[in-house]
Amino acid sequence: MTSKEIKIAYQEFGSLDELAPKDRELAEAAIKATEGSYAPYSRFNVGAAVRLDSGLIVKGANQENAAYPSGLCAERTAMFYASATYPESAMTDIAITASQKGVLCDNPATPCGACRQVMAQYQTKGGKPMSILLVGGKKIWKFEKVDDLLPLIFDSI
Fold it and tell me: 152 Cβ partners below 8 Å, 6+ apart?
């Protein structure tokens, strides 16, 4: 038997002002995207913004439904829209944020396992790393690639 260890590298920022202009633009788009959230049950408004290799930013927001689990996460609404509308474009970056009662949550909201796997598949399809920004009101985490959030990505098919 051999013991192994997985390490996750990321950067932490204290505010939007600390981000590079390109990252700040994407984070602000994700914050704006929370306005499109339909979350009458959880009152947890999530926004996501995906940057394509063309530079275009596509936004999505979580959509809840009384017929749970028929809703969909913000990350997947943004990625599915981007893929359906711009199928030849690679997704290079994604930013995710959450708010409650119109106020950005202090800590970054992290994507669910299903969203992480969808990110992994689009990263593989695009052929290059997709960076991830998780944006909170008091701290922001930046991951250089999906593998950092989902080690041992399912890619056996």
Answer: 6
Exposed (0-12), middle (13-18) or buried (19+): which is 47, by Cβ within 10 Å? buried
CA separation, residue 9 to residues 13, 27, 146 (Å): 14, 20, 11
Structure tokens at 100: 């409650």
Separation in Å, CA 38 to CA 13, 20, 43 = 29, 30, 8
Per-residue pLDDT in tens (0 to 9) along the chain, 157 residues: 999 999 999 999 999 999 999 999 999 999 999 999 999 999 999 999 999 999 999 999 999 999 988 999 999 999 999 999 999 999 999 999 999 999 999 999 999 999 999 999 999 999 999 999 999 999 999 999 999 999 888 777 6
Active site residues: 75
